[in-house]
Please model this.
Amino acid sequence: MLGAIFSGIGSFLWIFMTNDLGAQAMLLGLTGPAQVVLQLPFFFYSKLILEKIGVRYAIITAHILMAIRLLAYTFLKPGPMAYAILAVELLHGATFSGLWAAAVAYSTEIAPRGMEFMAQGILGAFYGGLGSGIGGISSGLVYSKYGPIWLFRGMAVLTLISMFIYAAVPTRKLVRTNRVPVDEKILDKQASQGLLEMTMEEGGAGYNVGENGETTGEAPVSTARRASVVAGRALASMARRQSMAGA
Model:
């Protein structure tokens, strides 16, 4: 779900800044560095952070910060206040890096031994492929009908729903085994690498922005469809290898 949320922000934040906040080119350019300035330290210290608060609380915290970020957009006004978006975008480093580091750690933790790379590949497919595609389509429909304010409010509500669902589901940890054949581990690594490359190449596809800030082009339907097919095959492969390991 957060893959769709990030896709909506990436597709329509600049349009919102241009059309509703009257942002100039310099402000648009500064949002990029503001988004990534905290990513490096968060990724660098991600292991220490996860050891201190745990994967579960890291994911919940990322959800809360994301909801705050989305709601903050709705309070911005044209003029000097528009520059406050730079402070809001600093939350991107905490939300994205914190969520991604925790999600990768969690997927590795619950994956059967020898299938950690496949688990990360499935995570990337759902986040950067299926989630990004769904987010681009749904965000475009909401933006065109209700405008950016209701889009960001709706995404904030979905973020909180996602957090409550995650918090309500008990953590799961599989009993690990070393009985997965070595050749299966190699195939798992190769397959997941290809899956990640596919999602990284296609995950950013979305609407095009016209000269007047209008969205043009088609939504990334093929991206979502292809990612769902590949992820489904990967899940089937993981189930098969898990049964082999437990046999």
The mean pLDDT is 74. The CA atoms of residues 84 and 115 lie 44 Å apart. The radius of gyration is 19 Å. Residues 116-146 form the longest helix (31 residues).
